[in-house]
Specification:
It is built from 2 helices and 11 strands. The chain has 185 residues and is of the alpha+beta class. The strands form 2 sheets. The protein has a 6-stranded mixed β-sheet with strand order 2-11-9-4-7-6, with no helix packed on it. It is elongated, with a radius of gyration of 25 Å.
């Protein structure tokens, strides 16, 4: 009886479903830097099609481009999704294989998203609306969905060395305007 219970628990743990994650799970960059986050899948069996949405903080990050990963590289067509940098979303990123072929099993990258860092702060990278289908177009239950985070260090203010000439020019301009007013009186 103990062996049967142990075998049942092992089987349940062995197929807890595939794990989707953002890689790297954490990243620290400076303002203006570019970074790439990969949407990774692990432990999937017979994946034929996939779809997901991703959200981020648009005051911290700006999405530039979504590129296909190598995992479903033989697909009919990769759909990069709709980037909305005002709302901080990328909707309907998808990929599908073509024809009567078996799905792909294993681990790999589904897509990569390139961002630029806009402002100081931390942005979560959150996956949602994940759909995985097998070669019979049946749902594959997802085991876990793990997001990521990007920390952007720094401030958007100019460096002091740049501010000295700017301040000098502003004082000079104010002085010239004041001088003109005095002469006109």
């Amino acid at each position: 009886m103990k062996k049967l219970i142990a075998l049942t628990l092992w089987a349940a743990l062995a197929y807890a479903g595939p794990i989707l994650s953002i890689q790297p799970s954490t990243n620290t960059v400076g303002i203006g830097d570019h970074l790439t986050a990969a949407v990774n899948i692990a432990g999937v069996v017979d994946l034929y099609a996939q779809q997901f949405d991703l959200s981020f903080d648009p005051s911290v990050l700006r999405a530039l481009i979504v590129s296909p990963g190598a995992f479903l590289s033989g697909g009919v067509g990769f759909i990069p999704g709709l980037i909305d940098n005002t709302a901080g979303t990328i909707l309907f990123t998808a990929d599908i294989l073509s024809g009567a072929v078996p799905g792909i099993s294993g681990d790999g990258i589904l897509a990569s998203i390139e961002f630029t860092a806009l402002g100081a702060g931390t942005s979560s990278l959150t996956l949602s609306n994940v759909v995985l289908l097998d070669s019979n177009l049946a749902d594959i239950p997802v085991g876990s969905v793990l997001g990521g985070a990007v920390s952007v260090a720094g401030t958007a203010t100019p460096e002091p060395a740049f501010m000295v000439p700017v301040a000098f020019c502003l004082v000079l301009a104010a002085w010239r305007v004041r001088g003109r007013r005095v002469r006109l009186s």
